[in-house]
Amino acid sequence: MYKTCLFCNRSLRSNEVVEAFPVGRRLAFDSAKGRLWVVCRHCQRWNLTPLEERWEAIETCEKLFRRTRVRTSSDNIGLARHPEGLELVRIGEPLRPEFAAWRYGDQFGRRRRRQRPSTCGERWHRSPVSPTPTAAREF
Asked: Which residues of the chain register pLDDT less than 50?
């Protein structure tokens, strides 16, 4: 197991969160392809880990990523920060809740706004032409 960056030879620091792989404060992993990288904080290069040390650490990283409540994601990359300071970068297919939020998020927002009861604005918009409050809100 290495403790310095392969590119700039600076320390990768350590973490106490992933017991199977205690190197690095920022770990990137792809559980589908079985890859684990330690991201150097100084040069921002990704150091691929040795094959023998990957699998348990990848499983642990996946569990930690799923348990983390605050995370950010794009199409194929997810970022999460553990409370102890470890940063996780997940590569691959998005998790189901994230995929649903990307695909249907705007529809859920519109549906919630339609179902929310309005205050005095609803009475103000009523007229003989539009007798229902929902028709007035669609304008």
From this structure: 102, 124-127, 130, 135-139
> Which amino acid belongs to residue 78?
G
pLDDT number for residue 139 = 42
| Counts for the chain of helices (H) and strands (E), in that order | 4, 6
- Tokens representing 55 are 């699998």
Sheet containing 77-81: order of strands: 46-48, 35-39, 26-30, 87-91, 77-81, 71-73
What lies within 8 Å, CB to CB, of 114 at 6+ separation is 134, 137
CA distance 57 to 63: 10
Question: What's the pLDDT score for residue 98?
Answer: 57
Q: Is the C-alpha dihedral spanning 52, 56, 62, 68 positive or negative?
A: negative
Between CA 24 and CA 63 the distance in angstroms is: 17
